[in-house]
Every structure is written in C-alpha cells, then in structure tokens.
Design goal:
The protein has nine helices and 19 strands. By secondary structure, it is an alpha+beta fold. The structure holds flavin-adenine dinucleotide.
Length: about 375
C-alpha cells in the first residue's frame, strides 16, 4: 500500500508517524514545498510549543459536535504518551503541556528523527499542484514531477502565517477539485478597533476582557492585553477572535477592566497610580472608565499575523473517517478542515487527533 501525505506540517507528519507505527509494511511518503519538515512547529507557543491542554474540550472548538468525538479518541494523555515514546518528555504550566526542554525545536527534531527511523520517505521543496484519480489510485502532480499513491491524506493547513508554508494553496486545490469551502477568516490574531489606539501602541496591561455580540456575553477572560497601532492584541484578544467568529462578527464590542484587582470606583486623578501613565492619559483624555473601557470591533489584522484560519473544507464533505464523501481514499486532516480551537494547545491537539483518526481507519 502506497500512502501519500500531502503536506508535511504538524498534522501531516503526525499522520505519517501514526500510519507507519500501525502498518510498518505500508509505504508512506510526505510531500511539502518547504525546505524542512514541520516548519510551523518551530514557531509554536512562542518557540516553546504548547502542544496540548489537559482542561475540558467543551466550548473550545468550532464545529464541536463534529470535532469532539475525534479529539476524545486521541486525548492529550495519548499525545504525551506518544511524545514520550519518541523522546519528547513533557511538562505542564497549569493545564498547558510543553516539551520538558520548553523548546519547540525538540519536538520538531524528535518527530523528524522518528520519521527517519520508521523509513518514511520525504520529498521537500516540492509544490503540490493538483491530483487526479488513476486506476483506483491517484497521481499527484507537483513542480518536481508526478507521484502515484493508492491513498492520499490531504494536510495542507490553512492560509495564516503563510511564511511558514500554509499559503492557502490547499484551499485553491480543493476548490479546483470541486469541494465546498466555508468562508475563511483570520483567527487567533490581533483585532482592529474603531477607536484610535495609536497613542498607546506598545502598552501592555493585565486586564479582564469581556467580549460581547450585541448584549450577549461571548467570553470573559483575564490576561495580558497589548495595544497595537490600530487596535488590540494579546492572548485574551486572540481567544476573543475565536468567539467573535463563532458569533459571525456581528455587533462586537470588547469591554476592558484595566484594574480587575481593585473593586470600586477609582477617581480619574488616581488612574496614573494603577496603570501605565501613557494609558492613564489616554483614558482621561478620551473620558474612558478604567473599569469598563469599550472598544468596537472593526476588523481582524490580516492572515499573515494570524495563528490559525477560521473556516475551511466544509465538514459535510467528509464522512466519519474524515474520508472524502465524493472521492474514495482521499482523507483530510488538520487546519484545512473547518475546525479550529482557542489558544493553549487546542489547535495542535486537533492536528494530532485528526491525524490519528485517519491513521486508525485508513486500511479499512
Ligand atoms: C506562530 C504560530 C504559533 C502557534 N502556536 C501554537 C501553539 O502553541 N499551540 C497550538 O496548539 N497551536 C499553535 N499554532 C497553530 C498550529 O500550529 C496549527 O493549527 C497547526 O500547525 C495546523 O497543522 P496542519 O498540519 O493542519 O497545518 P500546517 O502545520 O500549517 O502544515 C501544512 C503544511 O502544508 C504545506 N503546504 C501547503 N500548501 C502546499 C502545497 N501547495 N504544496 C506543498 N506543500 C504545501 C505547508 O508547507 C505546511 O508544511 C500556532 C500557529 C502559528 C502560526
């Protein structure tokens, strides 16, 4: 059996490993246009790779009815166990799992070493252009020639942070093959606000951020907010973008408490004692309440700075095995599917779990 893994990012490499662990006699080959495997993993978690999370999965993903059973089949504990098996011991900060080295490169290099140990073939600097069916199998057409496989696993990622390889060409390929995609938006990214934030660009503050669609509270979270020239950023804002997308980006406001530890009213003259003086001046000049400053959503920053893509291949295009409903022996995993999660290891868990799900079923 010849299996082509189309895209050698986080889900593609994990799928290749899991297929080969389960079926040592299969020929598994990974194709990627980058000059190294798993390029994105080296940038994850600020270079530390927050690869999983031990807290509940509920409320953390888009399309949860579809995604959660797949995620529950290969849990964070299974991922940690497998990582341990291939020489990546892990550690936790709260519920967030990291490699013990706190270096994403440990994960990238050890996964690659296992790829070599298992005899998985890798074709780098090879851009996938399209594929065609051929005598029950497939011919994958690339800039480096044509390759034949019995089954293919499409793991081309989204269109965010394209400098790491996921340039959206996967979506173009699927459109050409006649697949239905949902609308695509940046997610886990900074947001542009209607209010001018240029004067506080670069200021950081520990806040409680409440995100609303109309008067419906979408999410409330404590963490660091970072002002940008055109809006706001930081993990709390990144997570907010997930819920903003789920609410279809309608009538969104962000309510910020800049001093959550202090209850009760603070006089404007005293703001300077509680927050960065630049921020204090900004709040006073604009007559804003330090406990409840409202920013209005204008847009997301663009895909180039987004960690993830919201939307993708419609989940209605695949069956329970993540196999195409219209093309037998074509499977989809990772971010190319219309599933994504909040920050904290949830997106890599989806990449791993969807890869494992296919590895378990590909022989059937
Ligand atoms: C800066 C950053 C930090 C992140 N940090 C975290 C984190 O700490 N924890 C977490 O859970 N998630 C994190 N994420 C999200 C996570 O990395 C992604 O969700 C995950 O990589 C998705 O896996 P994937 O295999 O679907 O896509 P990718 O890992 O993007 O892989 C897709 C692969 O396909 C290849 N490809 C695309 N088109 C073609 C083509 N036409 N021909 C050949 N090859 C092609 C690309 O080169 C790429 O290698 C982060 C993302 C970014 C950008």
């Amino acid at each position: 059996m010849n299996i082509g893994i189309i895209g050698g990012g986080i889900s593609g490499v994990y799928a290749a490993l899991q297929i080969k662990e389960l079926h040592p006699n299969y020929n598994v080959e990974i194709i990627d246009h980058n000059d190294k495997l798993n390029k994105k993993i080296y940038a994850t978690g600020n270079g530390r790779c927050n690869f999983a999370n031990s807290s509940s999965l509920e409320g953390k993903y888009s399309n949860p009815t579809f995604a959660l059973p797949i995620l529950k089949e290969h849990t964070y504990e299974d991922i940690i166990k497998y990582f341990n098996h291939i020489g990546i011991p892990s550690t936790f900060e709260g519920n967030n799992a990291y490699p013990m080295s706190k270096c994403a490169s440990t994960v990238g290099l050890m996964m690659e070493e296992r790829v070599n140990q298992l005899g998985i073939k890798v074709k780098l600097n090879t851009k996938i252009i399209d594929y065609k069916t051929n005598n029950g199998g497939f011919i994958v057409h690339t800039n480096n020639g044509d390759f034949k496989y019995d089954k293919i696993v499409i793991a081309l990622g989204g269109k965010s942070s394209s400098q790491l390889g996921s340039d959206g060409s996967g979506f173009e390929l699927l459109k050409k093959q006649g697949y239905k995609l949902t609308d695509l938006y940046p997610v886990l990214c900074p947001v542009k606000t209607k209010e001018n934030t240029k004067l506080v660009d670069g200021v950081r503050s520990q806040v409680v951020l409440s995100t609303y669609s109309g008067n419906i509270l979408l999410n409330k979270e404590e963490g660091e907010l970072l002002f940008k020239d055109k809006g706001i950023s930081g993990i709390v804002v990144f997570n907010a973008t997930h819920y903003v997308n789920i609410a279809n980006r309608k009538d969104i406001t962000f309510h910020v408490d800049f001093v959550p530890l202090v209850k009760g009213r603070i006089k404007q003259d005293d703001y300077i004692s509680y927050v960065n003086p630049k921020l204090a001046k900004y709040l006073i000049d604009n007559k804003l309440d330090i406990h409840n400053t409202v920013f209005t959503f204008k847009d997301f920053y663009d895909f180039s700075v987004a960690h993830v893509t919201y939307g993708g291949l419609s989940i209605n295009e695949v069956n329970d095995s993540l196999e195409s409903k219209k093309e037998k022996n074509v499977y989809f995993i990772g971010e190319i599917l219309d599933v994504n999660g909040i920050c904290g290891g949830y997106n890599m868990m989806w990449a791993f779990a969807s890869a494992y799900h296919v590895a378990k079923r590909i022989e059937i």
